Automatic annotation (TrEMBL):
GO biological process: proteolysis involved in protein catabolic process
GO cellular component, as recorded: proteasome core complex
Pfam family, one: Proteasome
Gene source species: Prunus armeniaca (Apricot)
Lineage of origin: Eukaryota, Viridiplantae, Streptophyta, Embryophyta, Tracheophyta
Name of the protein: Uncharacterized protein
SUPFAM superfamilies assigned: N-terminal nucleophile aminohydrolases (Ntn hydrolases)
InterPro entries: Ntn_hydrolases_N, Proteasome_sua/b
Amino acid sequence: MSTCSILMCCEDTIFVGVDSRGTAYDTNAFILTEKAKKLFKIQYNIVATIAEDSGQCEALITYVKDIMENAMDINGGVAGDIHRAATLAQEYIRTWKSVFRKPFIGSVLIIGWENGNKSFRRQDKCISAISCTPRIHTNKDCVFAAHQNGIGGHFAFEYYLSHGKGNSREELLELLKHVLLYATIVDPMSGGLICVTEVRPFGFSKIYSHRVLEMFFDHYDAMTKYLPHTLVSLWCNCDHEYTYEHNEKVNGVLFGFLGDYHKSVVLGINRKFVVRLLHFSYQVHAKYEQLKQLNAYWVQDYEMNSRPKSRHTYDCTVHLAVRELPWILMSGFDSPIVFGEPTRNLVKLLRDV
């Protein structure tokens, strides 16, 4: 399982942002689940994010949590608890490698505060990387860390370096949302639900949770500079189930048909459509105009030969603006692929489908 886990720390708060998409490296970013759990509680002021082998990571976290909870029951607390949690995790991995004599295929970030500290000093909070190498950037106002698994962390770090400056708490939270959103629209392995948790010295709470398409619409203006090289692609769920084999076939046809098409990212799977964002190496408005001309030919041909149109074009539960988007019936498929430009209005319609 890859991940996009982002941490931003200001003076008295640690923001932890994660996505919920579960994929496997050997399935070319095929979505196994949109509800993968990647954030775990260890103590009231300590959490962990995971990547790669979720089973190994969860076993490690359970081990650390059980020991910490037992210590709390016995003496009411553990001195230096965030550092204690990291030490226990490292001891667990050393023992695991010794017993099984193979690598520990899991990555964990443990994030939290010293137990009961009331001073909110920078040195009283800690990010410990267990069996992974996060990208970390520090300035006088903020500490940023991106989990390195998959490529989501790389894109998040790239966005942060371009936009991150000295920020207030509110600005930092907004920046974190933009960083996560950018990663999910460019990284095929990131997506699902985007959640942000606030970790403070005396507790933590989830403060944000939205699907990617909802978040895309809410923060559309922040992403507009990255959209001229993209098109939206829709595949009707009623025609084919989303499976690995079919997903590979769709990607292969797109590569063959669109030429300089670079990659596709699934933004969401809803009742009607698999919604993809297609990335190109050039601005695509001219390509979209060609698709509209080709669609006009297809529609005319269907009408002349009395063949039925694509079923989404007469589905009254689909918004008229979506039904009127250009669609192409490609070789090897018995149902069309629909194309659109990622305008604010189209993103809104797809969010509500």
